[in-house]
Queue: 2 jobs
Job 1
Amino acid sequence: MNLLLSAEQQDLRAAVRSFLSNVNPRDGYDPAVYGRMNGELGLAGLVIPDEYGGAGGGISDLSVVLVETGAALLPGPFLATTLATLALLECPDKELLSGIAEGRINAALAWEDRPLVLGGMEADVLILVTGEPSLVAVEGFGREPVETIDITRGMARVSLDGATTRVLGRPSDRVHDLAMVAIAAEQLGVLRESLAAIVSYAKVRVAFGRFIGSYQGVKHKLADMHCALEQAESLVRHAAWTADAAPDELPLAAALAQAYVGRACFQAAKDSLLLHGGIGFTWEHDAHLYFKRAKSDEVLLGPPRLHRSRLAALLGLS
Amino acid sequence: MNLLLSAEQQDLRAAVRSFLSNVNPRDGYDPAVYGRMNGELGLAGLVIPDEYGGAGGGISDLSVVLVETGAALLPGPFLATTLATLALLECPDKELLSGIAEGRINAALAWEDRPLVLGGMEADVLILVTGEPSLVAVEGFGREPVETIDITRGMARVSLDGATTRVLGRPSDRVHDLAMVAIAAEQLGVLRESLAAIVSYAKVRVAFGRFIGSYQGVKHKLADMHCALEQAESLVRHAAWTADAAPDELPLAAALAQAYVGRACFQAAKDSLLLHGGIGFTWEHDAHLYFKRAKSDEVLLGPPRLHRSRLAALLGLS
Amino acid sequence: MITIGHRGASYGRFSIKPGQSRSLYGSRARDYSKWALIGVTMDLAEYGRRARAWLDAHPPTGDDVAAARSYMADLYDAGYSGITWPAEWGGQGLTQAEERAFAAVARDYTLPIYVFSIGLGMCGPTLVDLGTPEQKTRHIRRLLRGEDIWCQLFSEPGAGSDVAALQTRAAEDNGEWVVNGQKVWTSVAQHADYGLLLTRTDPSVPKHRGLTMLIVDMHAPGVTVRPLKDMTGRAHFNEIFFDDVRVPADCVVGQVGEGWNAAVTTLLHERLSISSGVGMSGEKDNPTSFAALSKVADTSDPVVRDQLVELYIRSRALALFNQRLAQETKAGIFPGARGSAAKLLLAELTTFSADLAVDLVGPEALVEGHPLANALALSPALALGGGTNEIMRNIVGDRVLNLPPEPRVDKNVPFNELKVNS
Amino acid sequence: MITIGHRGASYGRFSIKPGQSRSLYGSRARDYSKWALIGVTMDLAEYGRRARAWLDAHPPTGDDVAAARSYMADLYDAGYSGITWPAEWGGQGLTQAEERAFAAVARDYTLPIYVFSIGLGMCGPTLVDLGTPEQKTRHIRRLLRGEDIWCQLFSEPGAGSDVAALQTRAAEDNGEWVVNGQKVWTSVAQHADYGLLLTRTDPSVPKHRGLTMLIVDMHAPGVTVRPLKDMTGRAHFNEIFFDDVRVPADCVVGQVGEGWNAAVTTLLHERLSISSGVGMSGEKDNPTSFAALSKVADTSDPVVRDQLVELYIRSRALALFNQRLAQETKAGIFPGARGSAAKLLLAELTTFSADLAVDLVGPEALVEGHPLANALALSPALALGGGTNEIMRNIVGDRVLNLPPEPRVDKNVPFNELKVNS
């Protein structure tokens, strides 16, 4: 088992972090930013095999990126396209994968029984998981924008009436497992940045003549958040590693990561906001963006109890 | 609804508290102490109707007493006899009730499917709830002492082989409900005293040149414990009030009190012990006695989840 | 207690959750030691019946400020505003008994008097306690009649929990005060005619000692009110900028340099005003309540049932605690700092239940316009306003449990030598 | 890591839960900067095979102290004690690679060497760091061979978290030190030949500056060891009384007045020694583990399954965090204060799981003799020993997150003017 980042992954992280340092989560989807991100950095093709024009990276590499896009609250359909890509890896389609790798195509992953689709407005194609199960490419679908509390990226309510569909194959549970890992990686970034923000603030904000970080009431909460971060980071690394190197262990590791990290992320975002005091409640401050992204991510694949009941089943409890 | 103590109840509380101030929880069952307690104070007969020689008090009165016996960790079979008495009120038996009121008889409440009986060694008679349901007085039963982590009072493993039984009647669920209220009252006392002990210690114990109670790491935990105490006290008063004045509301109020107070009591006892530091881990210090009583009480009628699932049923969730 | 007709109601230095109720007459209603128990005996049931008849006969005519003013005037003229306030200044001079009888009836109505809540709950009681006879004559009756709307101007961007660290200066000039600075988290300031303003008049002494409270005319030149958009996307509060605002000398409340004591009085009324309403009513409109969530959650899942039970337990535990406090108060036992425990518990219950609600309902709950989306975004408000959870824990620890105080580094240092936020 | 054969094992200044493992060689095993990477190349697999063969051929012959000493001597003579310690003082002078290879094998065995754990984990490493050549010559080899048992004498009844507030005095007299005072929470003291003793030699300077560390002969006149019964009903620790105990001048470790630095060295080794073992093994004997509870709990109840899942999540989260720390350490990244996060998490997991276990099993779990009765009574130990949870949070906040320090009231005050426990 490997829970450490390789030198290449550390370089990747530094490159992505540097690139994202200029991104403002309030700016919305900017195709120019995505163009550079997918061009210079090749992020859209990171996990797409060489034969389709991608970099052939692993889920561990991808999770390094998602941690950073999460930490930066990158607006737009990056996660949506990533989730769709991960599904396509199960039932590869040359046209779609090359289009995504080149940055020409935005995609979104959808489930038959869930009309709300992340990135549905920006998606050129829906990758739909049906009950059969089949993986279906859908174009020309109906959609209307849905505003949610997460203003950094949109959802759409989609309708398949009159859409063009093409069956790509029969996906395994791995589609769902990889989605859980990807979202957990993003959540880890949101958690990390939520903590970093309040740690910085606690070092400069003064109350009663002292920096607030010197009060145990604050310090001990931040210490607990750090403990959560360490565990979350370990779980995400582990889940990503299983995806790459121990696929039999992926289902358990993925459900575990999602169950823990989703909760920990929202708790951290909430505590970070609260410990900022009044300023954290203002629209101008970013704390609420993290709070809202954290909650959106937490329920994106269904509420925490579903991941927990999946864990129970995988562990043979009954 | 009345959540306040009457002047009489305040007097009762003061009298019991004063009496118990000389009781050491490590001294074990002392019939002489019980003799005075049931004689001078008439506690065994508090809720027994006048006609059987009792004081005809209500559950609210009883709960005032149980809070104090809990806070003092009164050793011996007081709670056991009380639980049996509450069951007997449902199917009154003159001989037993007068014997208890006079302090001549110790009793213990038992359930058919649970061989461990609180106060089983000291009991002259078992009041047994069978599945019928029947309430049965059992004498001449077999027993062997069972040591548990709670050294302040014993249990027995009982056997009914060769015992004399006498059916007293058909009890309602109220037997169980009243037991929940009684134990919640005792737990409230354990909670209150656990908090009081650590509050006192936090005012005199010094670390790094300051009283430990001045650290927010300690102070905020104690504040949370106080919040729990306020709520627990309100729930116990409410449950006792329903027992006396609004019997239709008793089942919900009793399950609510037991579900909340049982948890809160153990948490408080645990946090109190931990905040005492090393001294709290020693045998000589009383913190572990509260910790162990709290846990024993919490599972006495079954684990917390049972009270919670009972609540769910009573609330019509399904 | 009266539920105020304002969705996502906010008041005081900060906001509260929707459905929160508060006492119409602030803490006066519970101040036995001063005005109550004057010995008026009357038929309370009859008093209540008449109040109900009046309320039935006077439905609100609109929900704008003009309608609110008109309603308040009618309420006052009918004798239902300032029931226990001193008759000398325009109150009814009646007792707790009438106040409670009216409150019991009014709970069934939604009175459109939200904009007066700061004045009635905090500013008015402070003036009654500390104002000069002239100030009381000038303001109290108008306040009770809804002729003037009041706001409270304490918090600043650099002084939140630590109110006494405020930096808004008031300098003497030709027998007037000249005010410069900024306040924040001010409810109803956009409608306010007057504000209770806390200023620093002497930066050379320790921070609690150089403050002065002023009555400021919100229409005076140099006062700018700017709405403050919060994380719900709406502006429940305002920022107020003071730019060479001149305040006459007779507008000092209490003594010059004694502003901290005056502020403590105001905050005490605020806290009472909040805690009196805590968990007492308004649950029926709350989308995160047990009742509401039981209807929408998948209760066929035992784990969901267990989560709902947890919510039920916490809600009932707090509601019963509040009822006990209320009963104690009725019985003459003043809750004091224990009210902070109730406020802390409500703040925690609010964040807990909003979080749970979204988990139970799923992604649809986060769509704009869903009641839970708003409830979630509003859920931190109570944990921040009226004292953060950390401040509440300090209060409970210090004043209820009498724990030793934190060492204070800012007690005896002149304000201008102190570390403060810039 | 080697699981030590001692039920309810305890060590250091305090106890740990049963099944807890620790490094046989303390923090030396991870100290790359000093002794390791000397460049010995050999066939590690062969090294491990030989170790296994030796361990197979040498089963423990008893569980008393004499058997332990004899086993330790054999282990040393076979080259498996002090693998990475300097050869100069009696160690093997080998590398991390051998240490890890041996540890990997030894994990399958239970070595009866508990009584040596304080010496190997803390006292020995401190002497190697700070001892005089004479002290090292005198003690290290004997310690590694199990000829001497060591204990650590820091904590006092009035100085727990705040070790530097200790009051045990050492006064100079005729070129010797005369020690008076009391220590507590001392593991294996009843068997110990030597102790590392922290004393106050100068009460007129601030508390951290007047301390001196001494090597004390536990058989010297005036040393009294008394077992300390803890809440489990057993004595995992001792109290030690010093009554005019004379200690030669050449037994000072480091410099006179520099005892605090020496103690920090020891505590660092202790913490590494704990965190290296955290959650890594020993779960199979733990009655509160997910595996154990899954077998005995009523898993037909979905709420029980959810509770077990919570335990699983927390256990795995911590285990993976520890594995990551271990992998980082192997890769040369020193965990530093992050180990305190792992220790804190383990302490919380331990109390959580014991509590849950009893709830799942019910009243039978509390009967004397039931493994869970003991587990519950022992569960607070890890949250108290080796630094309370509050101290761990301070360390994580101060040293990992670099948060501003608490204002210190005791830094520059002479010890004899300081507020201390009596």
Note: Chain A has ten helices and nine strands.
Job 2
Amino acid sequence: MKYSALSILREGLRGHKGWKPMWRDPKPKSHYDVIIIGGGGHGLATAYYLAKEHNITNVAVLEKGWIGGGNVGRNTTIIRSNYLHPANTHFYEKSMKLWEGLERDFNFNAMVSQRGVINLFHSDPQRDAFARRGNAMRLAGVDAEILSPEQLREHVPILDFDNARFPIKGGLLQKRGGTVRHDAVAWGYARGADSRGVDIIQNCEVKDIIVEGGKVVGVETSKGQIKANKIGMAVAGHTSQVAKMAGIKLPIESHVLQAFVSEGIKPFLDTVVTFGAGHFYISQSDKGGLVFGGDLDGYNTYAQRGNLPMMEHVMAGGMAIMPAIGRVRLLRHWGGIMDMSFDGSPFICKTGIDHLYLNGGWCYGGFKATPASGWCFAHTIAKDQPHKLNEKFTIDRFREGKMIDEKGVGPNPWIQ
Amino acid sequence: MHQINCPWCGKRDEAEFQYQGDASVKRPEPDASQDEFFNYVYMRDNPKGWHTEWWHHIGGCRQWIKVVRNTITHEIHATGGPQDDLELPKADVK
Amino acid sequence: MSNEFRTSKAGVRLNRDKKIAFKFDGNIYHGFEGDTLASALIANGVKLMGRSFKYHRPRGCLTAGSEEPNAIVELRTGANREPNTRATMIEIFDGLEAHSQNRFPSLKFDIQSVNQLLSPFLTAGFYYKTFMWPASFWEPVYEKFIRRSAGLGKAATEPDPDTYEHAHLHCDILIVGAGPSGLAAAKSAAGSGARVVIAEEQSDVGGMVSSELDQIDGVSAISWCQKTLAELSTHQNVTFMPRTVVFGYYDHNVMAALERVTDHLLEPEQDQPRQRLWTIRAKQVILACGSQERPLVFDNNDLPGVMLSSATRAFAERYAALPGKRIVISTNNDDAYCTAEVLKNYGVEIIAIIDARTNMTTKMQRLEDMGVRVLTGAIPQKAHGWQQVSGLSVQSVSGEFIEKINCDCVAVSGGFSADVHLASQTGAAPIWDDDLQSFVPAKPIRAECSVGAGHGSFGLADCLFEGHQAGVGVAELLGFKAEETKPPAADKVELYTISSVWRCPGAGKAFVDFQNDVTAKDIALSAQEGFISVEHTKRYTTLGMATDQGKTSNVNGLALLAAARGEAIEKVGTTRFRPPYSPVAIGAFAGRERGLEFQPTRRTALHECGEKLGAVFVEAGQWLRPQYYPKPGEDIMAAIYREAKQVRDTAGICDVSTLGKIEIFGADAAEFLNRLYINGWKMLAPGKARYGVMLREDGYVFDDGTTSRLADDHFLMTTTTANAGRVLAHMEHASQVLWPELDIHFCSATEQWCGVAVAGPNARKILAGAFGDALDISNDALPFMGVKTFNWLGTTARIFRISFSGELAFEVNVPWSSGENMWNAIWEVGQEHGLIPYGTEALSVLRIEKGHVAGNELDGRTTVADMGLGKMMSSKKEFIGKALSQREGMMSNDRATLVGLKLKDANERLRGGAHLFESRQGANSETDLGWVTSVADSPAINGWIALAYVKGGLDEHEGKTLYAVNPLYGEAPAVEVCSPHFFDAKGERLHV
Amino acid sequence: MSELTTSHPLDHVTSTHKISNDDAELCISVRKLPALIQLFAKKEHEAELFKKLNFQTIAGKGAETDRFTALPIAPRQWILISKDEKALDFSRSIAQEIGKHGYVSEQSDSRVCIRISGKYARELLSRGCRLDLHPSVASPGFCAQTPIAQIGVLLHQVDALPTYDFYIYSGFAHSFWHWLDDTAKQFGEN
Ligand SMILES: Cc1cc2nc3c(=O)[nH]c(=O)nc-3n(C[C@H](O)[C@H](O)[C@H](O)COP(=O)(O)OP(=O)(O)OC[C@H]3O[C@@H](n4cnc5c(N)ncnc54)[C@H](O)[C@@H]3O)c2cc1C
Ligand SMILES: NC(=O)c1ccc[n+]([C@@H]2O[C@H](COP(=O)([O-])OP(=O)(O)OC[C@H]3O[C@@H](n4cnc5c(N)ncnc54)[C@H](O)[C@@H]3O)[C@@H](O)[C@H]2O)c1
Ligand SMILES: Cc1cc2nc3c(=O)[nH]c(=O)nc-3n(C[C@H](O)[C@H](O)[C@H](O)COP(=O)(O)O)c2cc1C
Ligand SMILES: [Zn+2]
């Protein structure tokens, strides 16, 4: 059912009796052309682009719980393409372009809000490092600006310029960066995929991957065996677990990242601010909650909850740059399981097992990647070879010494 | 918040420690192949369940502590010094 | 309107001797000490206290506690303004000012309440289906509109002026809640000697007990509670924490609690924090959190004056505030009869009790005998009134209209939900109890247990018994022996029966989640649209996502979802419980770590010396270092230029105390260094220093510095300021984990020593003068890279002939306490020799002129070869990082390597972060050759120079012109590629 | 300059910080240390070293001799605070006495010592110290390293009043003092 001003008017007047489910609740077939494991943003986007771009519609998305219940439904919703390494810059810029046309593409309003993303810096060397990044962006055709302290003051008056332990010396701004309503991304892709014939199967946990003669042929699930010609894994925090089912070991660790939301307040902050030196970033949701976060708790875990030390640290970071938030109350905090790769960059690649494909290693940056990740992964699966945009996101890059390390902290996933 | 029993200092808050990753991998002999070093530095089981790992007690005695901890429940089964061989609990909880 | 609704009876929390004046929306009211804002307003006859989020519907109090969804206000003003503060939790004080929120221009006349007219279209999820056309409207029009309607209250925009602090607590038993259950537990555990803490969110004990009706051990229940508290306070091992909410259950039985230390005062008492965040490590936890009453879901159930039955009673008993004078009570369980009895005692007219149950219970009978009209099998149909309730239409359970009753208050009870919040935060999903019509805690998976109403035991007798047993049991579990005491006894045992009606039939707006305006219809619609998981329903409708987190609404919502799905409630389950139990101010989490105290500051021994000379300080990690020493009227660039120049002309002194220093001992110390550094250490003679580079295990450069051999088995390592801690940890790993067999011992010596660098042609003269006969530092006695230990005025001092600046230079270390003394000694002599102090900026200029790498060049992605130091790497020995440094991608020829750059046109500007290209045209990611890392306005070279990494390095580009393209600044100056050793490449100045 | 004038990281603060008029309630003071060293025992030489220096410790408990206070900080590592021997003499003579059994790092200036004592000391410390200092857990002699206000301290309980000595790296002394001063105000005027 198409959403339009008219359909809303019509339904409003007849008590909304006519709205149909956004996606069906089908029983799994015994065989599909493609199975995508994981009904998060990436899995659903992959199914959507398989159908839309490659006309492959005999597709199932298998989700162990409810779609969107993983990281896509619990992230801090920031989108940006302000990366340093060209491999990342081009990929994330593709994503940004897709975001920009998304709502009309899938007829669902995900509230893409290009309110700008600012990274603060506090010293000359930091400014130079950000300038290097900003210039890399500009040279890749991406927008970036450097803000002086005066410009920043005008842009974000709520910052504390005068009493900060690490005085603010300016910021790198990407105006086209911003936020997107996270749940809507999952729902929009699901609805779009479903309407093109994709089966979205919830409460269907993949328990094993069946490989015969070096080629993947199907999966065992909580709803029985399902065969497929090709299988893509897009399970984020559970990447190691699912890959292990096919005997694959990866340079990935699972870690928890916490997120926080305050009580709703009237408009307070109309951009995204990242305070890297204090491990804090913040934006305001359309409901009015301040949505913020910081670093990983820093220990391997599959529990979607974190602990007090990081909470205190994150909020101290917030108070350090925005002391006006002191009396705003924390409403809720939660965690999500990050598939931390050993260089902070993702995998979208073939696996060494024929027709089994890997999408993972997203760390805490995979939400913004959702459209491009789905788009590239669909391409990789459909063509059995990567697109130029994702050709560097291989597993072998580590063996070859071609890491794509944005932070430069080396093989320590808990600080990547 | 994890309470980690440092063999030297006793039970301490997680906040006193710096996590240092998987302790089940062993550094290869110096003359080992690049591949062995590659596995040591990059390849991880990343288990769901019991995990042997390093916690460096930087806020206390500065010893590297080995900890057997569950990555689902965060329960700690055992802690020991760097040279201790800690066993995983028999029945792996799921 | 003064206290018209105040009864002269009761009010256990009031101090009637102390009258308090306060302001709400600019009007002045009076209340008593002990009142909450809500109770005081109610006593003044004020019912309208807020507006809802989406439809801006008028709202009054629904509850009397922290679960309040409606009566939330902006408390205080200016920098102290606290949005979304629950009127039911604010203890009034003289001078209190509060404002209603989410309304314009006033609470009574709110323009946005027209949203209600649009409500047929503003259903759950309408955002997602709309605002898409035309595309060009999204950002400038729709998005702006959506974002403007965000939120309820306005936050302050100035820094929070109050103080917060953290505190730590350890106990054997933490009891959460000081209602009868918690107090009974505390009482029985107290005698055992266990360390007991009892935390209560409210200002006082008692929870839900009624002072009017319940009796415990022969006295009124509330006096028993007060008496018990008094008794407990005589025990050294018991701590009672009022106004303290335990809000989070974290791993390993660590609980977080917030104490509202001075929120009930106009201003914090001197030097008291506003709030204190407690981290409580409890061996065992007893959860005695009580229960929450649920509203009934019927049309217009959100009108001010419709209030939970237990809340009407609480307002009356605790605060002597009467929510109405003519009340209708609507219930489906027995508890509301207690309300009826209490209110009746205070002279409230109980017009009728309408009860969904069809069978007469003894309680009903009792009330009927007292002359109250009881209608069984009846439920509300619709509340009437404008901005406050004036009547209630009643229908039969099957939906036939019965009658309309006029009233000024409707007390509703849809039954009780055990407060399973904290128990469920542990991850143990609560279980549906069909008899109770409530979720109850699952079997504990932590060292905790639930008692009383929070455990699903709704009778007072059971609460007391369970509390008592838990106190004894838990103490014994911990090895304490509790005294033998009888459990406190209630005067009567009561059964709880309930018959739920989840949606009282009606076609209008029946609210489930009041604050977020989620109606019964929204829930049905979301199920219809395929959002059948309860978590989907929550996210699509926003049920339970407001500031009250659905405390009063979730169970009703689940039940409606279950009905829509045609399934039992237990199949639907709850959404996930997350901390905090009640919202907590962000400032409290930060504690004292804010402003300049965000992180500790490290100062060197020479901090005051720098200050005296007018240094401008800069952060270097946690350290503060002099950045430059401006002369009057001099700007930063000029100061740096002057300092750098004068060092090369005469001499300069620089505080280098922040460099990491690690003292290493042991027979295997040299072997250890051999394994840490890429170069060899075994042949280094005592009395000599050497530059070393360390790699990470992945083969990239980790840190560099000079290390000196002081004796065969004694070294002093220096690290960069930034990496001192990481290098120490790295060495601890190597010695404790990798090679425990080596005989090595080391510790940080950073703060033991104060260090200065004295550099420049006059350096030797100055130091010779300063240290006099104590020291021979002639080139023969102390050649380049030589080290000497000497005695200076009775202390040990060390001098190192090393140089970062490329000048004749020495670093001198003396113990911290002699630092100022040393500085002064050198300064005094230096005056005749043109000595100036220089800061980190000039230091940087000097090292760039010499091509020495520093932080900007070592960004964690650099190989030794990239830095041009490939030859240093020993092939004869093994060291950390060697194996992986040989990977293909790290050895390849197209890596960017270190070069120098000279700006060609002095009128242009060269900046760090520019990228390098062969041509100004066609600059893009593909043609990118590298980037500029550090720049300097060099006095020695007389122009701008830079270090940079360029693909192909010097081999390909030396002497060529490149362009430093900097789109951020709109610049692209031409630069000439040269050796990074700009100045004195042969190092002649070092060896004089 | 022929005369040694020394400075101390906390020179700028008053040497005693009385929170109340009654020392028994809360008293904070800076203790100037005669000498402090870090002592290492070689593996398997611990017993010899104990014998040579005539002391013995177990983890978490300091030892007192006539000559020094010994605080164990890690396996085979101690901080020794001399009672009156001065810096150089103390480290030299201890090094000589232990011979080949261990090593000595002279650290007299690396740390400052702040003494906190009185009835409110525990409560004051609870505002930053994560450890349980209740008398049933920590008695005189108790020693531990732990961060307070993000600053690593070595803590030693001196007596049951209680009195505690805190050893803090000199660079942090200023910040630590600042935190202490701020936090202590709630316990009364100074
Ligand atoms: C707190 C937090 C903040 C973040 N902030 C941002 C941000 O601001 N910007 C940004 O770009 N990124 C952010 N991220 C990262 C981003 O959310 C993730 O990288 C991204 O969502 C991951 O891709 P996904 O959506 O496909 O993952 P998910 O939504 O996690 O999808 C994976 C799905 O696989 C399912 N699954 C797992 N195992 C199986 C199995 N065996 N069988 C079937 N199904 C299975 C899971 O149930 C899950 O639904 C954040 C993440 C978190 C947790
Ligand atoms: N008859 C009925 O229908 C019915 C139903 C439910 C309860 N009750 C009555 O309620 C009472 C139950 O006694 P109880 O002691 O179990 O509960 P209670 O509700 O009397 O007391 C619970 C206390 O815990 C506090 N609390 C809750 N969560 C907290 C937290 N996180 N941190 C700090 N404090 C917190 C509350 O403020 C409250 O004071 C009995 O009198 C019982 O008869 C009656
Ligand atoms: C951007 C964003 C905004 C949120 N806003 C709210 C909110 O206003 N109220 C709320 O209760 N939860 C809010 N949440 C948190 C969710 O309720 C939920 O905790 C989160 O999605 C994780 O799911 P879980 O807690 O069920 O594991 C928000 C989450 C995100 C990602
Ligand atoms: Zn320890």
Note: The CA atoms of residues 541 and 567 of chain C lie 19 Å apart.
